[in-house]
Amino acid sequence: MSTLGFVMLVHTALDRAEQVARHWTAAGCPVVIHVDRKVPRSVYEAFVRSCSNDPKILFSERHVCNWGGWGIVAATQSAAHMLLQRFPDVRHVYLASGACLPLRPVPELIDYLAARPRTDFIESATTKDVTWPVGGLDHERFTLRFPFSWRKQRKLFDAYVRFQRRIGTERKIPDGLVPHMGSQWWCLTRRTLSAILEDPNRPIYDRYFRRVWIPDESYFQTLARRYSTDIESRSLTLSKFDFQGKPHIFYDDHLHLLRRSDCFVARKIWRDADRLYQTFLNDQAATLKPAEPNPSKIDRVFTKAVERRTRGRDGLYMQSRFPRHGCENRLTSGPYSVFQGFSEMFEDFEPWLAKVTGMRVHGHLFAPDRVAFAGGVAVMNGGLTNHVGLRDYNPTAFLSNLIWNTRGERQCFQYGPGDNQDINWFLARDINAQISVVTGAWAVPLFRSGRSFSEIRSEAARLQRIETEQLEILRSTWTKARVRIWTMAEFVEAPMEPIRTVIDEILPTNSPPLSQAPRPVDLSGFGKFLQNLKNQGMHPYLMGDYPVEDHNEPAPRPILKPYLVH
Amino acid sequence: MRLRRKRRVYRCLLKSRELSIVRDRTKTIQPDDILLVSTVRNEKIRLPYFLRYYRKLGINHFLFIDNDSDDGTPEYLSAQPDVSLWTTSHSYKRATFGVDWVNYLLRRYAHGHWVLTVDPDEFFVYPFCDTRPIRALTDWLDNTGVRSFGAMLIDVYPKGPLTEEPYREGQDPLEIASWFDSGNYTITRNPIYGNLWIQGGPRCRVFFGDNPGKAPALNKIPLVRWNRRYTYVSSTHALLPRGLNLVYDDNGGEKSSGVLLHAKLIDTFPAKAKEELTRAQHYGASAEYKAYARHLTDAPTFWCEWSEKYINWRQLEILGLMSKGNWA
After folding, report:
1. Residues 276 to 315 of A: which have CB under 8 A from any B CB?
2. What ipTM, to 2 d.p.?
3. Which intervals hold domain DUF5927 (chain A) (predicted)?
4. Number of domains within chain B
5. Are the C-beta atoms of residues B204 and B215 closer than 8 Å to each other?
């Protein structure tokens, strides 16, 4: 007779439970099965009949098991009691469910436990040290009462919790108990388990735990701390939980992961995972050397799943991730740069920037008449077209799509008050945006346009109004983008300073210094042009204190010759 | 909203009189069977592969509504062992574009079942669909307490002109139309029903550049654990009660979702577009088909150099068109 016995809690997929139970008894281990009282009598009896030819499978007294209720503990108690009584050779009791599947040959588990005869494998941590996933209730599980079902009477449950908080209910925890919680699936020694079951104070503890929430995760975990001399606080059962505290399920395609985990038992297995049952229940070659369970690979897969479900991929807007305002984490998937006023100040800013940084440099993506993709292409990554109507239909989606579609490659684009302004708040709130503005530079193309002065005047007034509004947004307290703003007058003083700051931030730290400067536009006469606007009653203030006369020629002059930045 | 839902229920009961049963095998439906409901019209050429595809996924019973086909569709369908068939020659448009008929069948036969509502040119793809049958998905949804599962339409198209390679009966349409647009979709939230309104893709790119507001909606919620109180509101874009439309996370996380590969744009399409134009039975005064017919005369190709070639669901998940969510 084996020194290892199993307690199996079953409520569904009885055929699978039988398969696994027979696998264990074939290795000599007795199994006591508890079938949920909610399973209809006829089904139960058929199940008992079909197992009746195996003397090592016994059935214990049935209890009604509701999630988070006392029934599961009661069921475990009576089944464990029966196992200890009827099979006196059993030294370790392993608690399993009907959806558990042994991953390694049973003799390996028996040997493993025989080598650790006094060790109790039970995950058990104090409430202070762990945050458990569901409901936000940690310590309160032990100090409030929970007469209502969390699944079926959620409103009553929540209301009663609120009520108790308000009136300050604090249940007294029985003397000598320190609340601990942990995985429901444990493997205890006969010594510890019988101490728990035969404790003279058991009625007191049972009465207390009957009103604790989810006692199956705390009853044995707490009491084992009281009696055990050697607790190994981990579960031998591989069992992963999602962010709502529901167990992850294993399928056929997890076969290799499960095999490499070296865990003894896994749950929960999907009932139709034929290949898993087929593989792990037929005699497998024993592993060559006795390995310690190592679930870290599987852990990674499921941790990633939880992260994907709770945080998602930054900058992705799709059918099952559409964050409301403020919940986006990051508005776009990667950093990008917005330049305003630069291509107005230089003849060849875009090609120069592309050459210096090696990044994709677009023109004015949001211009009213065209979408100036880099290289003048009509379609970009992901099938994004240069159609103005499609862009303006949802400009922020256009931008977030562009950044998402070009993941891994930084995008730069030109922007200005002449462009579609609907993306301003999006840009400002996006931590990935690097926005550099030379205010008032929009006047340069006007100055060089040679259009009639009255036209220029009204256009200048319009652009100045728009840029002022935009600057207000960029300077607001909600702005998360890295914004740098220079007036045109400041910029003209020493144009390479700002450019170098901006580009140093984009380029990797150890890239060579800039060896070439972009070619500035000829601004002679611009001061007079501004004065003319003033004389016409329009006050251009965004350029800063731009000198009227070009007498200090040397100021813009240095940028005329190639500029070397060390 | 309750009134709207009641109205839909009332309409579906009213319109159920237009349906006459041709082949009734609904007695064979088992309590946990997964069902599929579809409305067809002259789609016989597509049906053999359609049935093969969904049988392989694990659909147990098919409920078809045939709207006045004359190409042998009803004969073909009634000979299938797992198909129940209804027929009607009434107006598709006046049955709210078929929704009333579908709602009736769902109400009558799908109560308590997981049911997939798709058109014969839509192919359901979900996370792990290459290794796990659809029951793995529905069991998992049951387990996590989810009642509805979203799957947006992704139009697939061939590389050359539509009519270049003809579709053979029984063929996998993805062999011909294996390209799709990966990153030009726009989304807004519909404040009335709480669902997302997704537009974009190749049809929008080629046909609706000047009028994107009229571009077809691509959001769909085809897989639902049905209850007789539920109704579809417009096609399978939205449901009532509204909670069923929350197939997306608005907190920054990703729920799990699938995709309906929409193999409409193959060589049968131009003829279909012309026919539908004369019948004027489609949504928005068939504006969609009008736009198509206008462009189709100048034989468009949907393919562009940034089109993606369809490989599998993992590709779609990496591109961000669908998500595993917390199903692992």
Report:
1. 301-302, 304-306, 308-313
2. 0.91
3. 267-566
4. 1
5. yes
Tell me the range of A290-299, A301-310, B111-120, B232-241 where mean pLDDT is highest.
B111-120
- Per DSSP bridges, beta strands B238-240 and B231-234 are antiparallel
Domain assignment of residue B153, yes or no = yes
CB-based contact A363:B289 (threshold 8 Å): no
Q: For strands A92-97 and A4-10, give the pairing.
A: parallel
In a domain, B29, yes or no: yes
Query: Smallest Cα–Cα separation from A35: which of A87, A6, A72, A68?
Result: A72
Among residues A112, A87, A77, which one has the least CA distance to residue A25? A87
The domain over range A336-560 is classified in CATH as 3.30.450: no
CA B301 to chain centre: 23
**What is the per-residue pLDDT across A202-213, written as a single tens digit (0 to 9) for each?**
999 999 888 888
At residue A383, φ and ψ (nearest 5 deg) are 80, 25
- Give domain status of residue B328, yes or no: no
Q: For residue A295, what pLDDT band results from cuts at 50, 70 and 90?
A: confident
Segments forming the whole domain that contains residue B29? 2-319
For chain A, the C-alpha Rg in angstroms (whole number) is 36
Mean pLDDT of B98-127: 93
Is B189 exposed, middle or buried (CB count within 10 Å of its CB: 0-12, 13-18, 19+)?
A: middle
In sign, the C-alpha dihedral spanning A537, A538, A544, A547 is negative
- List the structure tokens of B150: 């979203």
E strands along chain B, which residues? 20-23, 34-40, 61-67, 83-88, 114-117, 122-125, 148-149, 151-155, 179-180, 185-189, 196-200, 223-225, 231-234, 238-240, 258-262, 308-309
Give A387's contacts in chain B (Cβ within 8 Å). 205, 209
CA–CA distance, B132 with A240 (Å, rounded to integer): 19
Residue of A nearest to B323 (CA): A320
Maximum separation of any 2 CA atoms in chain A, in Å: 109
Gyration radius of chain B over CA positions: 19
> Which of B143, B249, B251, B254 would you mutate first to test chain A, the one with the most A CBs within 10 A?
B254
Any CB–CB contact under 8 A between A541 and chain B? no
Q: Which amino acid is at A107?
A: P
Residue A410: left (phi > 0), alpha (psi -120 to 50), or beta? beta
Placement of tokens 């009335």 in the chain: B192
Note whether residue B117 is domain-resident.
yes
Can you give the residue ranges of every domain in chain A? 4-117+236-310, 336-560
CA distances, A81 to each of A56, A64, A196, A206 (Å): 15, 18, 10, 15
- B252 and A272 within 8 Å at the Cβ level: the answer is no
